[in-house]
Amino acid sequence: MALKPPNFQWLGFTEEQIELLDFTDFIGNNGWARNSQTEEVMPNHLNDCAEANLGIDRIVEAMKAIGYTRDDLHMLRRWESKRTTGKFGK
Q1: What pLDDT, in 10s, does the model give residues 38-71?
Q2: Which of 13, 17, 35, 48 has the smallest count of CB within 10 Å of its CB?
Q3: What string of DSSP letters covers the chain?
């Protein structure tokens, strides 16, 4: 889990992308652990991100910028694998 600094601003993103990043951060309150809630939300959310031209690499960099750990970011990439292949990545 990371704690976004007060008054933090996502730079270089559209308003839609900022909302998606904020929600990604909100979902990440448990490091994007695999559970029934994230199983329901993450693939659809990452699909929304992709439709908004917000790819996983940009999402990972944004989450890294606010303090998510390497393990957290690895889990986030695993969710992208679930979205794109239907299988949870390793």
Answers
A1: 998 999 999 999 999 999 999 999 999 999 999 9
A2: 35
A3: ---PPTT----S--HHHHHHHHHHHHHGGGTT--SHHHHHHHHHHHHHHHHTT--HHHHHHHHHHTT--HHHHHHHHHHHHHHHHSS---
What tokens does 17 get?
Answer: 């992308």
13 close to 24: Cβ distance less than 8 angstroms: no
What's the token pair of residue 65?
């910028």
Model pLDDT for residues 21-33, shown as the tens digit of each residue: 999 999 998 889 9
